[in-house]
Amino acid sequence: MQERKNIQLRYKAQLLLKKESALYMYQNEQMRSKEEKVDSTVYYTYWKGEEVCTTWRDVKQRRMEQCRHAKK
Q: Residue ranges of the alpha helices (H) in 1-72?
């Protein structure tokens, strides 16, 4: 059951990364760090050069990170 929940958390993180990179690439938004709460999970989104990354805590409270390359 925990593995399914972790997969859902990873999927939501991927959606946030897609949204943030699309804002940067297509709508000329600035690279910014932000904190977003989705279904009681807090996702921190930040930039590392041309990569947008997000971190969150999984079911066992381990820190997880996922990044996506975003280029104009």
A: 2-26
Total number of residues shown for the chain: 72
User: pLDDT tens-digit profile of 15-69?
Assistant: 999 999 999 889 888 888 999 999 899 999 999 988 999 999 999 999 999 999 9
* DSSP classification of residue 28: -
Write down the pTM of the prediction: 0.85
Domain residue limits at 55: 2-69
Residue recorded with tokens 């932000």: 34
One-letter amino acid for residue 17 of the chain: L
For residues 20 and 32, is the Cβ–Cβ distance under 8 A? no
